[in-house]
Amino acid sequence: MSPEDEALVDRFLDMMAAEAGASRHTLAAYRNDFERAAECVSGPLCQADTDALSGLGAKWSDLAPSTVARRSAALRRFFGFLVDDGLRADDPSEALPRPRFERPLPRILEEAEINRMFEAAEDRASSGEPNAVRNLALLELLYGSGLRASELVSLPRRAVRPGQPFLIVTGKGSKERLVPISTRADAVVQQWLEVAPPGVMWLFPSSNKHISRVRLFQIVRTMAADAGISPDRVSPHVLRHAFATHLLSGGADLRVLQSLLGHADIATTQIYTHVDSARLVELVNSRHPLATRSR
Predict the structure, then answer these.
(1) Could you tell me if residue 105 is inside a domain?
(2) Cα angle: 67, vertex 272, 285; to 5 degrees
(3) Contact 144, 179 (CB under 8 A)
(4) What CATH number corresponds to the domain at position 11?
(5) Based on the domain organization, do 91 and 132 belong to the same domain?
């Protein structure tokens, strides 16, 4: 990027951090998108006109539609910032590409499969072996509370207080939300704390820090294999999807689900209505009397 671009991008990122509460990872992603866009235009990016931006679609033709959509969204926000701050008179972002793509439906597990995972995890934890108790606590919080992997592994040691039916989680954009804690999860976490390494600040420690998201991924896949489920089908995020889908199937309100999941936009939560619809279609095709009737 040109020195002029660098200065303006720094101002934009300062604004995003201060006013929108953007995380370090989000700010790094914005900067990377701007750097890639600057490579595709002649002259400073901040001075690009509609002709320059309209040509980005062809230059990004080999990228995934989701990547193009993300870069375009970042640039729209950047040019909007320039106009709002009086650093530019016009906004050329209408010329940016707007790819159309279908958001894939999330992978989910059936309730029977979730039950098998719990049965296998509970059987192992009954031995009192510390790692087995820890793994059961991880499973209870992933499926029972819908936590993101990063939120779960970074929980402080005393995040779950005995008898308190919720905990406060800091999610994306450093936003806090209340997350429900079931009686089952509470009991297992307290059982884990009795055998967990003492003197550490994390609920799920590893060495001198907390367990990593990669390690959590490995643990969840191992628990799936123990339950006779293909590990390729299971991840911490799949369990979060299962939490949301099963709540919705049980009659949960979409706005409540949005709050529990920590989604900034309800459009993100609405993907679960499509999942439920897909399951209904599958149910009709497999269980309806006409499904087995020969022509």
Answers:
(1) no
(2) 110
(3) no
(4) 1.10.150.130
(5) no
Query: Can you give the residue range of the structural domain that contains 84?
Result: 3-95
Catalytic residues: 148, 172, 237, 240, 263, 272
Nearest by Cα to 187 from 238, 246, 144: 144
Residues 263 and 136 in one domain: yes
Cβ–Cβ < 8 Å for 80, 91: yes
**pLDDT at position 242:** 83
**Number of domain units in the chain:** 2
Residue whose pair of structure tokens reads 């951090």 in the numeric block: 17
Chain segment 5-31, per-residue pLDDT in tens:
999 999 999 998 888 777 888 899 999
Q: For 62-80, what is each residue's pLDDT tens digit?
A: 888 888 989 999 999 999 9
Single residue among 29, 60, 95 that ends a domain in this structure? 95
CA distance 122 to 210: 23
> Minimal CA–CA distance to 245: which of 103, 117, 111?
111
Kindly report whether the global pTM for this prediction surpasses the value 0.70.
no
Q: Answer yes or no: are the C-beta atoms of 210 and 154 closer than 8 Å.
A: yes
CB count within 10 Å of CB 257 equals 21
| Contact assessment for residue 241 and residue 107, using Cβ atoms and an 8 Å cutoff | yes
Same-domain check for residues 134 and 212: yes
| Residue 188 sits in the same domain as residue 276 | yes
